[in-house]
Each structure stands twice: as structure tokens, then as C-alpha cells.
Amino acid sequence: xxxxxxxxxxxxxxxxxxxxxxxxxxxxxxxxxxxxxxxxxxxxxxxxxxxxxxxxxxxxxxxxxxxxxxxxxxxxxxxxxxxxxxxxxxxxxxxxxxxxxxxxxxxxxxxxxxxxxxxxxxxxxxxxxxxxxxxxxxxxxxxxxxxxxxxxxxxxxxxxxxxxxxxxxxxxxxxxxxxxxxxxxxxx
Length: 188
Prior knowledge:
Layout: H1 3-20, H2 22-32, H3 38-60, H4 68-89, H5 96-117, H6 128-156, H7 161-187
Helix pairs in contact: 1-6, 2-4, 2-6, 2-7, 3-5, 4-5, 4-7
């Protein structure tokens, strides 16, 4: 596969993975439903991106390896945490980007598992271009989600019921879904 083909193939795989990676999408959506200020949204999304990019690279380069049997339940637990924190703290948690960075490290290991399943580097080819293009695809998918979600959330927040009812209900559903995945990934 030529470098142009590899770039397009792995970028497309990154986009597909984030669009079909419901756990990653739910985590990101849970962060956005309580975020109000642009600088907080940018800080949260950037810290998540930087963190998962670091561990994606480290795991893909075989510098750090954590089995999926550990990573996947922890990703689910991060979703539970964010959903509960949204309800418990009410409003936008201060300095949330710090916790999001830590959770982003976990999510990066999850992304790396996909690349390992695809056999990244097993064919003797370089891994830098596929790694970069896959991560770029993930970022394109995330930006698309944020671009779609923010106008909808802005509109929803105009309702006086958003903070009292909608946001806690959505956060509760996030926590329940994360708990389902946690049980599924731990016991099954």
C-alpha cells in the first residue's frame, strides 16, 4: 500500500472508529452537556485529544502495553464517573480538564487496541504514517461530533428546565450506560 493510500485508509478507519465507538462518543457527549463556556469546552476537548494521542502512540509503538481486559472496563468506569460527576457537582466542574486528561490516557489505549487488531506494523511497513493518519481521523470525527452537538446543546440550554431536569437525566443515562458496559466488560 502506498503512503497516500495508507494515509487515506487509516484516516478513514479513525473516523469510522470514533463514529462507531459509542463509549468514546458517550464520554465526549457527557463532557459537553455540562460545558457552557467556550474556553472550558476547548480545554476539555484538547486535554482529551492530547492524552489519548499520547497513549495511542505509546501503545502503538509497543512502549507501553496494557491489556484490553483492563483498559476496556476502565473506559466504561470513566463514563460512569463523568455521568455521576455531572449530577453530583451540578453545573460545570472546575478544572475538569485535569480528570479528562487522565481518562483520555485510558481512551488512547482503547484506540491502540483497534490498531493492534488491524495488525499495525506487522507487515514490516512503518507505523508512523498509519498512526498519525488514524489519530487524525479520530480527531476529525471528534470535531464533527462537537460541531453537531454544541448548537443543539446551546439551543437546549435556553430552556429553564435544562439545568434542573434535562442535564441530570442525560447524565444519569450516561452513568447507567457506562455501568452496563462496565459490568459487560468485567463479567462477560
